[in-house]
């Protein structure tokens, strides 16, 4: 595709009246003369200047501008201005999400005025002619959402353009030839936005990094990270600092802590885990109670405020889990070594310790710094094997009857072995307690999301050679319940103190009523009914739906749509509770290796245990906002990496037919999710040549005008791969038709 060079002066002064008004409105508190306006337009010839003078006089006569002093003009502002965030649509128009309006405000492409997706903008709104909805015009860009973009560079003789890989980016970025940074034509690059002058068709930028050739695995993974401003490696000074830390366990530090090295302690994690940031301890007490410790790596002991290590951890705010790699929040010396609760090693920990009875009721609690020793490491599969082999829990004196045989095919070490009987008893007893706690949560209105996770088997070159689904079993839920318990009780411990103390909470608001109504409309197509009368009925109704769809073809679609009805969980100092978990107090305490808010929680908890005054709320609220934003970017990168791998996997299955479920219907086509591997692609309506299909919004369907054949949300169809685009992360299907109904 050949790009034209910049347009000349004659084009720059086209539609001059609106352009002058736009300049004056943008800086509406300042006055400008014709020379200053000409400079902003980038014109300096006499003819253009004369036209500017003429237009200024016309606007003055219409009383749209005023002359503040001789030859200086300023906009007359009678409009009320608002601020919001721009959400670009695929065709160059967009919507502004603003707290001043109940509905999003539509912005036509000619009123975008150089704003880009995600920008914080100023705008004014007016009623549209149709349906009384609001339309607006952007008058000022308050803050750019991002200054760096990923795209493919097209190099010409003395200039270049970067084509950004996003359907929400309506313009290419112009790069002067002296700013291409040794990029070659067709390379994937990271480009920084430098300026966008009045009258210019495209923003100017500079290539800051060449990521590689399109379609190559490392190029695309690094492009995903760069797209969201996520790092791929640590600065050398941070690595050097981390490597000089004293990670030894010494008696002086042990003396300051509760010594729990003799308590039976173990970890349960994924088989391929490298960082173990939580461990459980279990002891049977003489009074019929059990002492259960949730021990968390004491990251804040090593990551001290005011250091380059802390600055880097804060900026990252989270580890990023892509399909083929983890981009850690902390350097390896901490994440995989000093702060990893590996078996047969002493470690500094921060603990929540509970004395509990057989009904999982807490009789006593303690929080503080500890030193622990992990006796054993289990994978989830190994712990699950113990739970499944022992349906009845023997009394403690009969623990030798527990079957702790771990079969070879699931053993971490690759060979059959017998786990310690005491650990086996602890796993069984804690599983029993976890089920009681989970049941209690469900009765109190918690939502049960057991969404199927898509995982890939990768070869040595990180190519996907198989897809499998990860589901949550009893062993996963055991760990989950005790982590939830620690998070909840730490939040309660601080949150219920008087006077009120600044703390970091993990909050989750109630579902959006409009989204719930949309969900109801969709799931009714599958025969499900929902009851949204009150808070309790919403929770029980959603749980019933999630339970009913398990194992059905529409499960992934319904799970996804149900999650989308939920508000986003976020970090804040303003506690409103956690709707999804049905907790009045909740925080994140249990994963400081991979989440910065947990580090803040550890620091604040110790701060208050030491009797100190309440911390500065404004400082912590700002840190919470940053952490929430980084979590959001990380989630998007993780999703993109899954999408990339799905497309890469489908590249090798181009000649096969697949049965899928229609997961989305639009006027431009249908989206289909393959049942066997959860890969989603699109069938374009332009390729459905057997009829003229029209979109029926109320039926969530495309319906053939002549034949009446319909393709409705949730229906099964047969598709074949038409095209795979690794760069745009786009998968196109050819529609074969509906599966044949077998006549019995």
Number of helices: 18
Mean pLDDT: 90
Could you give the order of strands across the largest sheet? 13-20-19-16-15-14-21
Structural class comes to alpha+beta
Estimated radius of gyration: 30 Å
Reported for the largest beta sheet, the result is: 7 strands, mixed
Any idea what the shape is?
Answer: globular
Bin the helical content.
Answer: 25-40%
Give unreliable regions as ranges.
1-14
The tally of beta strands, per DSSP, is 35
Strand residues, percent:
25-35%
Distance between the termini: 56 Å
Any key phrases for this structure?
35 strands, RNase_II/R_CS, seven-stranded mixed β-sheet, globular, cytoplasm, five-stranded mixed beta barrel, 744 residues, alpha+beta, RNA-binding, RNR_Ribonuclease, disordered N terminus
Description of the molecule:
- With 744 residues, the protein is α+β, with helices and mostly antiparallel strands.
- Helices cover 30% and strands 27% of the residues.
- The protein has 18 helices and 35 strands.
- It has a seven-stranded mixed beta sheet. Strands 3-4-5-7-6 form a five-stranded mixed beta barrel. The protein has a five-stranded antiparallel beta sheet with strand order 10-9-8-11-12.
- Helix 5 packs antiparallel against helix 18 (617-651).
- Residues 1-14 have low confidence and may be disordered.
């Amino acid at each position: 595709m050949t790009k034209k060079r910049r347009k000349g002066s004659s084009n720059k002064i086209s539609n001059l009246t609106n352009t002058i008004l736009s300049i004056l409105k943008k800086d509406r508190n300042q006055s400008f003369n014709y020379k200053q306006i000409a400079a902003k337009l980038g014109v300096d010839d006499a003819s253009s200047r004369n036209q500017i003078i003429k237009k200024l006089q016309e606007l003055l006569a219409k009383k749209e501008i005023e002359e503040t002093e001789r030859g200086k003009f300023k906009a007359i502002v009678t409009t009320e201005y608002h601020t919001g965030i721009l959400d670009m649509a695929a065709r160059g128009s967009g919507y502004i999400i603003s707290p001043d309006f109940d509905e999003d405000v539509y912005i036509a492409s000619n009123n975008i005025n150089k704003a880009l997706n995600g920008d914080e903008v100023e705008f004014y709104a007016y009623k549209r002619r149709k349906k009384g909805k609001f339309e607006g015009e952007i008058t000022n860009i308050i803050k750019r959402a991002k200054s760096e973009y990923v795209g493919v560079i097209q190099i010409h003789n003395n200039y270049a353009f970067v084509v950004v890989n996003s359907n929400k980016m309506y313009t290419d970025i112009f790069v002067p030839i002296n700013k291409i940074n040794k990029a070659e034509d067709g390379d994937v690059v990271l480009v920084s936005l430098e300026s966008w002058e009045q009258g210019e068709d495209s923003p100017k930028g500079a290539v800051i990094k060449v990521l590689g050739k399109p379609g190559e695995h490392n190029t695309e993974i690094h492009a995903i990270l760069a797209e969201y401003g996520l790092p791929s490696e640590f600065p050398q000074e941070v690595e050097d600092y981390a490597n000089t830390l004293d990670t030894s366990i010494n008696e002086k530090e042990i003396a300051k802590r509760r010594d729990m090295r003799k308590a039976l302690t173990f970890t349960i994690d994924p088989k391929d885990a490298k960082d173990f940031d939580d461990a459980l301890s279990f002891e049977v007490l003489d009074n019929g109670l059990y002492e259960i410790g949730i021990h968390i790596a004491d990251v804040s002991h090593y990551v001290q405020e005011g250091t380059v290590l802390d600055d880097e951890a804060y900026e990252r705010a989270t580890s990023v889990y892509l399909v083929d790699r983890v981009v850690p929040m902390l350097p390896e010396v901490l994440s995989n070594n000093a702060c990893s609760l590996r078996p047969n090693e002493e470690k500094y920990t921060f603990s929540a310790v509970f004395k509990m009875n057989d009904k999982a009721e807490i009789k006593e609690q303690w929080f503080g710094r500890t030193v622990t020793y992990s006796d054993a490491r289990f994978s989830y599969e190994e712990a699950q094997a113990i739970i499944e082999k022992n349906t009845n829990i023997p009394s403690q004196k009969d623990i030798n009857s527990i079957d702790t045989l771990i079969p070879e095919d699931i053993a971490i070490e690759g060979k059959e072995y017998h786990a310690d009987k005491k650990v086996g008893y602890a796993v069984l007893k804690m599983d029993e307690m976890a089920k009681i706690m989970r049941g209690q949560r469900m009765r109190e209105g918690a939502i049960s999301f057991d969404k199927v996770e898509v995982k890939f088997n990768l070869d040595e070159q990180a190519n996907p050679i198989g897809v499998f689904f990860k589901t949550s079993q009893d062993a996963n839920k055991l760990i989950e319940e005790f982590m939830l318990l620690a998070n909840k009780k730490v939040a309660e411990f601080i949150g219920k103190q008087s006077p009120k103390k600044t703390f970091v909470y993990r909050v989750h608001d109630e579902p959006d009523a409009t989204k719930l109504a949309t969900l109801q409309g969709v799931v009714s197509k599958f025969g499900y009914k929902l009851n949204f009368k009150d808070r309790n009925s919403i929770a029980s109704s959603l749980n019933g739906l999630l339970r009913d769809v398990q194992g059905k073809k529409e499960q992934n679609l319904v799970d996804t749509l149900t999650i989308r009805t939920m508000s986003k969980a976020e970090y804040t100092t303003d506690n409103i509770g956690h709707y999804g978990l049905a907790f009045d107090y909740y925080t994140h305490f249990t994963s400081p290796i991979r989440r910065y808010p947990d580090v803040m929680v550890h620091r604040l908890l110790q701060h208050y245990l030491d009797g100190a005054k309440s911390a500065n709320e404004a400082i912590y609220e700002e840190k919470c906002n940053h952490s929430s934003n980084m979590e959001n970017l990380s989630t998007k990168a993780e999703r993109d990496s899954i999408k990339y791998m799905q497309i890469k996997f489908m590249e090798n299955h181009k000649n096969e037919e697949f049965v899928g479920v229609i997961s989305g219907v639009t006027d431009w086509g249908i989206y289909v999710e393959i049942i066997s591997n959860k890969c989603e692609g699109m069938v374009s309506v332009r390729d459905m040549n057997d009829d003229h299909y029209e979109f029926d919004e109320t039926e969530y369907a495309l319906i053939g005008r002549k034949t009446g054949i319909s393709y409705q949300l949730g229906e099964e169809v047969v598709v074949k791969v038409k095209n795979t685009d690794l760069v745009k992360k786009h998968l196109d299907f050819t529609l074969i038709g509906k599966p044949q109904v077998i006549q019995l």
